Amino acid sequence: MVARRRRRSAGASGLPGAALAPAGTRIDPVLLGLAAACGHDTLSIRPRPRVRVLVTGDELTHTGRPGSGQVRDALGPLLPSLVHTLGGVVADLHHVPDRPADSLADAVRRTPYDSGVIVVTGSTSVGVTDQLRAFLDGDGDARWVVDAVACRPGHPQLLAQLPDGRWILGLPGNPYAALAAAHTLLAPLLTGLAGRQLPALPRIPLAGDTRIAPGRTRLVPVIWDGVTARAVGGHRSAFLRGAALADALAAVPPDWQPCTPVPVISPAG
């Protein structure tokens, strides 16, 4: 028997000069193999955005069960993994006291300039100990981009750009509110900094007893079977149990009617 020879013509796998993948494509093993097969020894990439996290609050405790007047910090453990899931990398995380009044401003100034994003948890409202707005309006000399979002929970979130080009993003101090705000502002910011496009959100029929929030979009943790989403209980702004059990977050508009489709953000955290 005579073995058949298989020959491939040069350029048969693609047109000369054609892009192998669009800008913003994630580097994975298959893309590396494709690049190598086409003779590329190196690739020009955008690294994951570097994020510094500043967790504020004198009431926070960081080990064991909280005592009277204390709250266990949930965002310190939550945010590094969430940032990685959203496409960034947490370079470091610091806990910042509420007093003295300039402690947050000092922490921002000490943040290394190789950080493209500074995330501040808590301190985003207008209370006596909420320092972030005062810093941004004062010596921060920031350019405001977003000042609160009409959603629940997570309304007092904000986004601004410092004069040196770094972004500063404020998340509420309550854990579930912070998770909702991270999907609202932090996810799009990291996606844009990585040169990617935001994916279109699937719209899934939402069933079950879900309260709407007049004038605001309500973010509700849901279990999703691929056809219908159902709300999970236990999603108060300070409590993560619902989100921990959920497959996704549903963005429920103020005019929602039962069993009508809503945008779904997946995964929840």
Description of the molecule:
The protein is an alpha/beta fold and 269 residues long. The chain has 2 domains: 144 residues, MoaB/Mog-like domain (Molybdenum Cofactor Biosythetic Enzyme, Chain A, 3-Layer(aba) Sandwich), CATH 3.40.980; 63 residues, no CATH class. Helix content is 22%, strand content 25%. The chain has 6 helices and 14 strands. A 6-stranded mixed sheet has the order 4-1-5-9-8-6, with helices on both faces. A hairpin with an 8-residue loop joins strand 13 and strand 14. The protein starts with 28 loop residues before the first helix and ends with a strand. The relative contact order is 0.12. The mean pLDDT is 89.
What separation lies between the terminal Cα atoms?
Answer: 60 Å
Report the CATH topology name of the largest domain.
Molybdenum Cofactor Biosythetic Enzyme, Chain A
Oligomer: single chain
Would you list the SSEs in sequence order as H and E?
A: HEEEHEHEHEEEEHEEEHEE
Main features:
14 strands, 6 helices, Molybdenum Cofactor Biosythetic Enzyme, Chain A, alpha/beta, 269 residues
Compact description:
The chain has 269 residues and is of the alpha/beta class.
Task: Describe the secondary-structure layout.
Layout: H1 29-37, E1 50-56, E2 60-61, E3 71-72, H2 75-85, E4 89-96, H3 103-110, E5 117-121, H4 132-137, E6 143-147, E7 151-152, E8 158-161, E9 167-171, H5 175-193, E10 203-207, E11 217-224, E12 229-231, H6 241-245, E13 248-252, E14 261-265
Parallel strand pairs: 1-4, 1-5, 2-3, 5-9, 7-11, 10-12
Antiparallel strand pairs: 6-8, 8-9, 10-14, 11-12, 11-13, 13-14
